[in-house]
Amino acid sequence: MRLEHIALNVADPDAMARWYTSHLGMQIVRHIPTPNATYFLADSARMSVIEIYHHPAAPVPDYAAFSPLALHLAFSTSNMEGDIARLVAAGATHVAPIDVTPAGDRLTFLRDPWQIAIQLAQRKTPLLQPAP
Asked: Going residue by residue through the chain (132 aa), what tens digit of pLDDT does each one get?
């Protein structure tokens, strides 16, 4: 089996989809308009998908209350400092210093404008390689 997507119930999926496509390089691969606006967003390599939607049958979690270590969306970067500055200028908040792991990976956490934790990962060796 292959993981298809991870879903997040959010208060404003329209604004969040705009921000994620404008600032994180995500692409809308499917949009289901109101009443429960839903977006499926693929990463720039089209290897992973997140679903963001608003469904009133379930409460929107208090994402700010979640430690980034409990829940985060991780994005790979080749320009850690540049991406931090660019995302902060776009409304994100940098919430943790850059950490270097024993494996040589550089990691940090930000929060998007809706308080969902975003991890930037600059891996010494990428986790995934494109299939041959």
From this structure: 888 999 999 999 999 999 999 999 999 999 999 788 999 999 988 889 999 999 999 999 999 999 999 999 999 999 999 999 999 999 999 999 999 999 999 999 999 999 999 999 999 988 877 666
* Phi, psi (degrees; rounded to nearest 5) at 82: -65, -40
Residue 22 parent element (H or E):
helix 13-23
Tokens standing for 119? 């991890």
> Exposed e or buried b for every residue in 109-128, given b needs 16+ CB within 10 A?
bbbbebebbbbbbbbeeeee
| Interatomic CA distance for residues 59 and 110, integer angstroms | 23
d(CA 114, CA 118): 11
Cis peptide before 35 (omega within 30 of 0): yes
Query: What pTM value is reported for the model?
Result: 0.92
